[in-house]
Amino acid sequence: MVLEIMGYILGGTLITIAVTLVALPMGLVLGMLFALARVYGGKFLSGFAALYSTVMRAVPPIVLLFILYFILAGSINISPFWAGSIALGVISSSYQLEILRGAVQSVGGGQMMAARALGMSRLTAIRHIIIPQALRLAIPPWSNEASIVLKDSSLVYAIGVPEILRRAQFVSARTYQPFLAFTAAALIYFLLTFLSNRLLDRLEDKTRIPGF
Amino acid sequence: MENTILRIENLSKSYGSSTILKDVNLTVNEGDTVVIIGPSGTGKSTLLRCINLLTKTNSGRIFLDDKEINAHGVDENDVRKHIGMVFQDFLLFNHLTALENVMIGPSKVLKMDQVAAREKAFFELERVGLKDKAHLYPGQLSGGQKQRVGIARALAMDPRVMLFDEPTSALDPELIGEVLEVMRKLALEGMTMLVVTHEMGFAREVADKIVFMEHGVVAEEGAPDDLFFHPKHERTREFLWKITELYGKHDQEKGENPE
Lengths: 212, 259
Prior knowledge:
The structure holds 2 protein chains of 2 kinds.
Chain A (H helix, E strand, L loop, with lengths): L1 H9 L2 H28 L2 H16 L2 H15 L4 H28 L1 H9 L4 H31 L11 H12 L2 H30 L5
Helix pairs in contact in A: 1-8, 1-9, 2-3, 2-5, 3-5, 4-5, 5-7, 6-7, 7-9, 8-9
Chain B lengths: L3 E12 L2 E12 L3 E5 L6 H8 L7 E6 L2 E2 L7 H5 L2 E4 L11 H12 L4 H14 L15 H13 L5 E5 L7 H16 L4 E4 L3 H7 L2 E6 L2 E6 L1 H6 L4 H14 L12
Parallel strand pairs in B: 3-8, 3-9, 6-7, 7-8
Antiparallel strand pairs in B: 1-2, 1-4, 4-5, 9-10
């Protein structure tokens, strides 16, 4: 019985991972763009990014998920999987904006000044000097955000995506074994976050700048 | 025939209501080493940053090789290719090796191909005596080594003039010598240099002209011996002798000269 429950829920793991693998990189790209706008943009760009950050982080993710899902599903023919993943990506981007903004500012204005003194344009300096250093600084808080996105992927159960939580709910209803079902789900989530944290720790070690 | 590389006319700079630089005039001829001295906070660093357009001036003109570089519409990035700058805090790119630090200018700004850029970088690193440290990162270098890499990085762009903003002020006394030695060598090789420093020994030995700045204006300027032995203003004499007392011998412990 336990194995059957476990096996069924395990089948949702790939979907959970898929949702995360769509949302997280999307959040990174968007978050980076917004972070650069926030730090290097003029009054309007910077202000817009600040507004985006404040609003998106002030609303519970599940509320935003519903809003974005109904906007997306209402306007284009899109599956719950994609609607949910994209929505989570947008949500994550607002948190990653703050992480990356902190990282970029930690790199310091001196680096930009030295780069420009060589004749680099701002864009070249951002690309070759600021971002490489900022990304390294961002790994620890980013690892945290990665765990959060992985766990937040469970929110898409609410729009019908058959990931881990949805399956656990289904099995729990079918077998009248909620404790077993949800504990199994929790166990899988634990393994996933544990592994991803370890992976990111390895990344941090590999990319560490010698001497620091 | 003296060739003027850098000419500054009536340069002024204020931040809000405080005036940092007031009507500064300065000429630097080819191959000259001009040393700027003066009390802290009198605008010396600001002056350097105005020259390479990192800071916008309020009024005045700057000419590099007779071309006005701080006029409207001038491509600032292009101008900065010809002006090298060395910073008090070194400001090396921490994620790059010494070699990569020196290479990145030629490679990304001058668009040299990798092989040529690497060769140029090795050449400049050798010039500052650090060829064997090429593959180390800034975090693995001493302060003096970092600054020498900083000098090599600026030299790799083949600038018309090198600006030094208190290059040894952040260094331990024992490490100052190696940097001054590189600067001395550069001066002898004919590099045009504008140096803000407190190192009076260096100034007296290497400078073609010393400029004493105070309160955002040029108080006095002249050849080292003129300023030291026949200064026009009492204040100049006062400052020079005090500074020599403190910094003249850079390997002396600062504690021996309390003030």
